[in-house]
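Give me the fold.
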Amino acid sequence: MELHGSYDDLYKIVSRLRAPDGCPWDRKQTLDSMKNFLLEESYETVTAIQDQDTPAVVEELGDVFLILAMMIKILEEEESATPADVFNEIGAKLIRRHPHVFGDEEIHDAEAVKARWDQIKETVEGREKKKGVHAVPPSLPPLERSYKIQKRAAKTGFDWEDHRGPLEKVREEIEEIEEELREHDGKRIEAEIGDLLFSVVNLARKLKIDPMAALHGTNEKFLRRFTRVEQEMSKAGEPMDQANLELMDQYWNQAKETESR
């Protein structure tokens, strides 16, 4: 498959958008503002993959490339880096970390490849290798980072024997939230909510449930039921507001019952 000028064409479009007479919205973007769009488009790509929707995957990958091209263009405008710098860096890194492909080494096992990759990062590139819980990237979404931190901590023996420990911890954290609510201390309430979420993730881990997948399923379930509530309220000619909470709750329960049949 040929890709004649694919990135070049995209880069020209982005350059036109960022030009003085280009798009006001695109021109005002910075690396800091674009990082949020990069995360958003990455999540949408993952969702399309989970849904096994190939056309959507293609579209979302295109959106990711757009964000990356925009960020590279911003770096170029700041005279911090060029597109060539970005591609040369990743190209050199891939060659350097695959001596069994681009060199004379022989490695035939995937785990051995990973071990050699890490060794090159540490010995050749001089990167300090973080271990245990400290190796979990801080850039991960908080829920996923919490899950990975707990898994690594468990490998050291710092773990509950079974799910009953974290389940009791969840109950304890709820009680502490109730206590802080009586004190009306906003910062303490936030801290206790964080402790509760951490404990729930721990409970999911002990039950061998992926908390990210579980939350994704619940989000989708909520959206299905809420859509049903919106539809029924529209049919009844009633507005979606707090005054109609009892009626909305009634439609919610109907949607819930319909799904359980």
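The mean pLDDT is 92.
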